[in-house]
Structures are given as structure tokens and as C-alpha cells.
From TrEMBL:
Record field: catalytic activity: (1R,6R)-6-hydroxy-2-succinyl-cyclohexa-2,4-diene-1-carboxylate = 2-succinylbenzoate + H2O
GO molecular function, one term: O-succinylbenzoate synthase activity
Protein name stated in the entry: o-succinylbenzoate synthase
Enzyme Commission designation: 4.2.1.113
Length: 368
């Protein structure tokens, strides 16, 4: 169940407007899961049907990532079209758990009708480096944008080559900057040991998802063996997976992708009741979903780590046409987020590699 807003107890209904989008990456993003070329999703607008509330609309976004366990774009579109143009808060609260991106999008739009009382404050953002040798280009704008934390994706090519590039990358890191390494579940256990040994006494904040989702016990053992913390990502992509891992005693960091995690209210309630070390992370959504992510960042307690939202520069366009008028402003692609900043991001067409246990459900856009 989602949040029980004040107006969810009455007969409130909302007109639903949807707009599918497809946004091209400036250059394909290579990860262990494959090559990402564009980002597809759905923008949502909820407008009260009651005359007394006319003119007040809320904005949300459905940004599926089936490779991580969410519904695919076709399933999300089918759900939106089944609404026949209107929905109630009770119906939003009843969106099933096998549609987590829809849960997020519709509850975000409902929450957007209830502005925050306190404005967001300055927050640290983690920037995303290109994979492989491209990260070593000193002319990349990301090196001069004030990031205190940078992420580099690994398990993309042969490990000896990546470990050599890692040493070069460490040499390039400005003083005081931390590095996050993200394997997307693409390492073997032996390779994970190699990486963790290479990370010892280096400015590495954590190694993210070294092994596949089915290898929880092995990652738990690794988390106790090395000083460099491990973080789970693919293993906790959905609400149900998150609960399972939490109750199995994961002792370290958990990377949450709110746009595919389900109802935002559920995450807020859990984090206020349980001490957890989490990082909020992007699924390359647009500014509409990012607005909700920053709202979450101001609402969740003890959120001390840099937000994994430094993905602006990966897209060709910064605007969203008439859908850009939902109060987002402009997110600057810098290491600090300021109220009034905005941005855009994506995922859609993926050319998948063979290794790993991504468990894709597919939306017709994957090239095997």
C-alpha cells in the first residue's frame, strides 16, 4: 500500500494524462548488462477533476528498468491505458507490486500536489565517469565540475586491463575525491577478491554489487573480509528484494533506485523506523522523476552519502517540451545540487552481453 494522503479518504479523482518519451544518449553507455543507447519511459500528469481544485496538477514519471526486475515499458503502458483517463488515490494505493515503476510514478504525481514545507538544501552529487579508458581523458568536463565522489563502472572488459586502468584513474583523482566502483553483478568471486585487494588503502568509497543477485552469501562473506565496504544494488532493486536482504542481515550499504523501487512513501516509512545506510541512485530518468528523488533526499533520515544522480551530461537534450513546465527548473550537471537546478536522464534500448544474471524480462528493445 502507498501513502494515505488526506484526500485519499474522500471521493477525489484525477484526470490522467500520459506521454511516452524516448531520449537518446549522447554516446552509448557500456555496463556489464550491455550497451544503452536510449531511455524510454512515460510522463504522467494528474489533474483534480473537482472544480474547486482546478488548475492544480501533479507530475510523475514511469521509468522502467526490466533488467533490474521492474515491469517493462509495454506493461507500464498497458496499465496506464487501462485507467481510461482517470484514477483515484485508492486506486493508486492499489497498484500491484509487479508494477513498481508505475507505483513510483503515480504516487510521485500525487505527492507533487502536496508541496514540501521546507525547501531542499545543498546536497552532494556523485558524478558518473565513462567506462574503460575514456574515463582517463583529462578534458572531460566531469573532472572540472566540483564532484567530491565519482563512479566508474567495471566488469565491462578483461579484468587485468581494468585493474591497470584503475591504477591510472587513482593517479588522476583530485585530492579528497572518492571513487565508487560498480560491477553490476559482473565479477566472479575470484575477480571480486582481486578488486577488493586492489582497493585496500585507496580512496574507494565502496565496491557496488560485485556478484550476481543469487550470490548473496558470498557477498556477505566478502563484506566481512575486507576494509572496503560493499554495496548492494541489483540484489535490492525492488521492495520485496530489499526486505529479504535486510532481514537476512546485510551489514553494509544499500543502493536504492527509487524510480523502480515502488511507492516512495513505503521507503520513507521504513527508513524512519529502521537505521539503514542507503544511497539514492538514478535509473537515468528525466527531471520529472528527479524532482521526486530530491524530495526523497530531503525526507529520508541520515542520508549522508552523495546522491547517485550525476547523469545529466549523458543526454543530448536538456528540455522536455511542454512537459518541462512542471516546476522542475534546471538541474545543473555539477557536484552540488541547488534548489532550482534540474536535469534529464535515461535507459531504453540495450544490447545485452551474455554474462551475469540480470534476469531481463524485456520490452522489445533489447538486442540480444
Amino acid at each position: 500500500m502507498g501513502i494515505n494522503f488526506h484526500n485519499s479518504q474522500n471521493k477525489a479523482r484525477y484526470q490522467v494524462r500520459i506521454e511516452p518519451y524516448s531520449r537518446r544518449f549522447k554516446q552509448p553507455l557500456q555496463t556489464h548488462h550491455g550497451l544503452w543507447r536510449d531511455r524510454q519511459g512515460i510522463w504522467i500528469q494528474l489533474c483534480p477533476m473537482a472544480a474547486s481544485e482546478a488548475g492544480e496538477c501533479g507530475w510523475g514519471e514511469i521509468a522502467p528498468l526490466p533488467e533490474f526486475g521492474s515491469e517493462n515499458l509495454t506493461e507500464a503502458l498497458h496499465f496506464c491505458q487501462s485507467l481510461r483517463g482517470e484514477i483515484s488515490p485508492e486506486e493508486i494505493n492499489s497498484i500491484p507490486d509487479d508494477l513498481p515503476a508505475c507505483q513510483f510514478g503515480f504516487e510521485s504525481a500525487l505527492m507533487d500536489l502536496h508541496p514540501l514545507e521546507n525547501p531542499p538544501h545543498l546536497m552532494n552529487i556523485c558524478g558518473l565517469l565513462p567506462t574503460g579508458k575514456a574515463a582517463l581523458d583529462p578534458k572531460l568536463p566531469i573532472w572540472n565540475q566540483g564532484y567530491a565522489t565519482l563512479k566508474w563502472k567495471i566488469a565491462v572488459t578483461e579484468i587485468s586491463q581494468e585493474l591497470a586502468l584503475f591504477q591510472d584513474l587513482l593517479w588522476m583523482l583530485p585530492e579528497g575525491v572518492k571513487l565508487r566502483l560498480d560491477a553490476n553483478g559482473g565479477l566472479t568471486e575470484a575477480e571480486a577478491h582481486q578488486w577488493l585487494q586492489a582497493c585496500e588503502h585507496q580512496p574507494v568509497e565502496f565496491l557496488e554489487q560485485p556478484l550476481g543477485r543469487s550470490e548473496f552469501e558470498a557477498m556477505l562473506a566478502l563484506s566481512h573480509e575486507y576494509e572496503t565496504p560493499l554495496a548492494l544494488d541489483e540484489s535490492i532493486a525492488t521492495w520485496q528484494q530489499f526486505l529479504q536482504v535486510y532481514h537476512r542481515g546485510w551489514p553494509s550499504i544499500m543502493v536504492i533506485k527509487p524510480a523502480i523501487f515502488g511507492f516512495p512513501s513505503r521507503l520513507i516509512e521504513f527508513c524512519h523506523a529502521h537505521p539503514v545506510d542507503i544511497v539514492l541512485s538514478s535509473v537515468f530518468e528525466t527531471a520529472i522523476a528527479r524532482k521526486m528523488l530530491f524530495r526523497l533526499a530531503t525526507t529520508l533520515p541520515n542520508l549522508d552519502r552523495a546522491l547517485g544522480l550525476g547523469t545529466d551530461r549523458w543526454f543530448e537534450d536538456g528540455g522536455m517540451g511542454e512537459w518541462g513546465n512542471g516546476g522542475m527548473g534546471e538541474w545543473g550537471d555539477t557536484g552540488r545540487w541547488r534548489r532550482g537546478d534540474a536535469g534529464t536522464r535515461g535507459h531504453g534500448e540495450m544490447e545485452t552481453r551474455g554474462r551475469g544474471d540480470a534476469g531481463t524480462r524485456g520490452d522489445g528493445d533489447a538486442k540480444k
